[in-house]
Design brief:
single chain, about 210 residues, 7 helices
Length: about 210
């Protein structure tokens, strides 16, 4: 079966955490680095979590986390100090993606994020900083399969006819659900986003209807 005809099977729920500060002076926006790389692979047909990828990443441009960043994410300095740098984590992530045949059959999966920042801004920024430009196209966008994602904020807004999109906390409250875990823990955010997705599916949402144009 060709990749173009492979039916959608997986949602790749992704939510990065990155170095940051509340002034943008210590860590300018253009020098942010991924420090938590979580993914929950959700099987639409089976309605189950197929696999989880979760690693922390050691930053190199600004190796010392700000107090603001630690308070926001809960990620400790010792955690990132003992982690690998991005190129090693990225290599393992690509193997994770290949192991589920997502690179081979890109139409079988679509990334799902809470906003566009993760794949529109942060991953290209990190790849350039790490010298890993083979995943970036000449126009500056990401290559397949990282170029396709559903912004769950927009999907939730459209499903419920809301005037404005809501963040993850707002979607949980609107859906009558409590936050599980810690907000801005990347892996906890992925799990909470998936809870929202499951609730949306119960209310009639179909991921196929929100696929980005080819």
């Amino acid at each position: 079966m060709s990749a173009s005809k492979t039916p959608l099977r997986y949602l790749v729920v992704l939510d990065f955490e990155a170095t940051c500060d509340d002034t943008n002076r210590v860590v300018p926006r253009g020098e942010m680095e991924i420090i938590e790389f979580p993914t929950v692979l959700y099987d639409l047909e089976q309605d189950k979590v197929e696999a989880i990828f979760h690693e922390y990443v050691r930053p190199t441009l600004h190796p010392t986390l700000t107090e603001f960043c630690t308070n926001l994410t809960g990620i400790q300095q010792t955690t990132v100090d003992s982690a690998d740098t991005f190129p090693d984590v990225w290599a393992r992530y690509q193997q994770f993606i290949r192991s589920h045949k997502i690179a081979e059959e890109p139409s079988s999966a679509v990334f799902l994020t809470c906003g566009d920042w993760d794949l529109k801004t942060m991953l290209p920024l990190q790849l350039r900083a790490s010298g890993l430009t083979e995943t970036i196209t000449p126009t500056g966008t990401l290559a397949s399969p990282y170029d396709r994602w559903i912004n769950v904020k927009k999907s939730y807004q459209h499903l419920h006819g809301l005037r404005y999109p809501k963040g993850m906390d707002g979607m949980l409250r609107h859906a009558g659900m409590d936050l599980e875990g810690r907000h801005h823990s990347g892996i906890d955010d992925c799990r909470n986003i998936l809870r929202i997705v499951r609730k949306m599916r119960q209310n009639g949402w179909k991921a196929e209807d929100d696929l980005p144009p080819p």
